[in-house]
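Our platform keeps sequence and structure together, in a single record for each protein. Nothing more is needed to write down the fold, since each code stands for a local backbone conformation. An entry from our holdings is shown next, in its original layout:
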Amino acid sequence: MTALGDAGDAGLEDAAHLVGVPDEFQRLWVPHRMTYIQAGPEPLREECPFCEAPQHPDEERLIVARGRTAYVLLNLFPYNSGHLLVCPYRHIATYDEATAEEVAEIGALTQTAMRVLRATSRCDGFNLGMNQGAVAGAGIDAHLHQHVVPRWNSDANFFPIIAKTKALPQLLGDVRNTVAAAWPV
């Protein structure tokens, strides 16, 4: 019998013999993506995910720290492992709508996030930013959020440029647990 079977069995063969057999496909194992597949094409469509998240247990919504006016959670669609978002609890769209207390806490939580990510992941730098409004690239433009994206000297390669693919080496739950455990009380 050949690898494809013989004509008598219409090319079918016991799949157990094919496990790990190389073929022309390049596989990128990203098990964390099952979260998005199982949630459907537009999770949390009816509700603001940043208003909804704090109403649930931290582990369930990937929240790593809570403050008085703002909180920190992992991005469900990370650019890099450890991509955090700092959000005010209050549903506001732009930075100029934030109170002085919210601005101060967003800033303090962002600084702490950088320190924790540097300690836990040994990153070489960060991208920080707020995309305000859909025209500016905000995926969720109705609720202000600051991105804290850890960067490493070796994190840019041909995947994002050529294949529009990002390889993430850790599951979101594992990243959340590591960052939350390292967050100062």
Remarks:
- Strands lie at 63-66, 70-74, 84-88, 125-129, 146-151.
- The first helix runs from residue 34 to 39.
- The helical segments are 34-39, 49-52, 58-61, 100-121, 158-163, 172-182.
